Every structure is written in structure tokens, then in C-alpha cells.
Amino acid sequence: MANLNKVFLMGNLTRDPQLSYLPSQTAVVEFGLAMNRTYKKQDGTQGQESCFVDCQMFGKRAEVINKYLKKGDPLFLEGRLKYDQWNAQDGSKRSKLRVFVENFEFLGRGGGQGGGGGGGAPDSAELPEPPEPFAPPTDDDIPF
């Protein structure tokens, strides 16, 4: 039987990202993500529940998350679930289910920032110049 371990989440950071480096100098960022769900109860009132998830990402893009995101910023991510187990200092066994982030997209905040570019993304002064528009070749451009 085939297996699939894939999650897609969209929510807000619950704390500022924490960046550290492995002995191999690989960047590691950890952050929390909260997703809210609103629903209608049987009595007609509106209910709300929140889900909090710990996330972890490695590599160059971990540094990007640390640089451009902060607590409260929206984020869309794709990843997989990872089950970690360890022994605590008091000798008890501990475990945690977290999301290992494989890809992400910045989301715009309301209030004028366009989708995909907001949420702490670099401003236009930091972005490279767009390429020249493509012009189809004319007869003068084609050698015979």
C-alpha cells in the first residue's frame, strides 16, 4: 500500500521565527503557526477553535523566513508531518508532532499589500529589475 505524508496550512505566526545553525552550518528555523476555524453551533451561535502547530525548516529558505517574517504575519506552507521523540532531563519520554516545511508562500496582509508580496516580503527596492518584455522576431532579425 502506498503512503502519503503531505500537509498544506495557511495561518499566522504565533511567535517570531528562531534561527539557529547546525554544526554543518545548515540554517534551521523554528516557528509556530495558528489556524482558526469558525463554525456554527447547533444552537445557532458561532463557535471558533484554533489549532497551533510547531514548524521547522532547513536551508537557505529558513534564513528567508527568519529575515522577512515576524509574529502575526500570514503564511501559506507545504510540508510533511514529522514525529520527534526524546528523553527529558527528568528522565521522562517526550514526543512532539511538528510540520517539516518543504515550501512556503508569503501572503499579503489586508490594507493595500497585494497577495503574495506582503507579510514582510522584501520591498521593491530590494527586488531585481524585471526582464525586458519579449518581442517576437521580425523578418529583419532572421538571417537567410
Strand sequence of the main sheet, in spatial order? 1-3-4-6-5
Q: What is the fold named in CATH at topology level?
A: OB fold (Dihydrolipoamide Acetyltransferase, E2P)
Fraction of residues in helix: under 10%
Q: What share of the residues does DSSP label as strand, in percent?
A: over 45%
Per CATH, the superfamily is Nucleic acid-binding proteins
Structural class designation: mainly beta
**Number of E-state strands:** 6
Q: Average pLDDT across residues?
A: 83
Shape annotation? globular
The radius of gyration over CA amounts to 21 Å
* Helical run tally: 1
Low-confidence region ranges: 111-136
Largest sheet: 5 strands, mixed, barrel
